[in-house]
Design a protein that fits this description.
The chain has 158 residues and is an alpha+beta fold. It contains 1 helix and 8 strands; from the N terminus they run ββββαββββ.
Length: 158
């Protein structure tokens, strides 16, 4: 669903990580979205092409699918940020997710999620993710993510 010549953050998960079954980003979930995220400077990116079974009503992506993309990509934005700027292998989980649906998100067009860390804390981070189609932002999420006790990236305990 995503494309880049850079390495995908989700590919850093160890084969025994429980996060590999996540509906949004888990490589081992055959029925999931399997989003892939990568860092581009300070921004974390992900492409997703919604399929007909992601429909809320004709021509429009289901809001729960949108929230899942924003949620998972927000977590991976924090993971990528801390790896790139602090050389830390740390996993995060969502503590708070707020989604604003700005416009209907069309089925059949490539979506681009753009995430960035807006606040860094000792145990948590703030993340903003915009979902765009072309130049139009169709949804925006604000997340608070917290460090998970066990890093799903390297398999080491924090």
């Amino acid at each position: 669903m995503c494309g880049s010549t850079d390495s995908f953050l989700q590919d850093q998960l160890s084969s025994d990580s429980g996060a590999r079954v996540c509906f949004g980003c888990g490589a081992d979930n055959a029925n999931g979205l399997r989003i892939k995220s990568w860092m581009d400077g300070e921004t974390c990116l992900c492409h997703f092409l919604p399929k007909p079974h992601h429909t809320a009503f004709p021509g429009v992506v289901n809001g729960g699918i949108i929230a899942t993309i924003l949620d998972c990509h927000g977590v991976w934005t924090a993971v990528g940020h801390y790896k790139k700027f602090h050389d830390e292998d740390v996993m995060f989980v969502t503590a708070k997710l707020s989604v604003e649906y700005l416009k209907p998100t069309p089925i059949g067009e490539k979506l681009l999620a753009k995430g960035r860390v807006t606040r860094e804390g000792k145990r948590s981070a703030g993340v903003t993710v915009d979902l765009t189609v072309g130049e139009q932002i169709t949804a925006r999420a604000e997340l608070v993510v917290v460090r998970h006790d066990r890093s799903g990236v390297s398999g080491r305990s924090n």
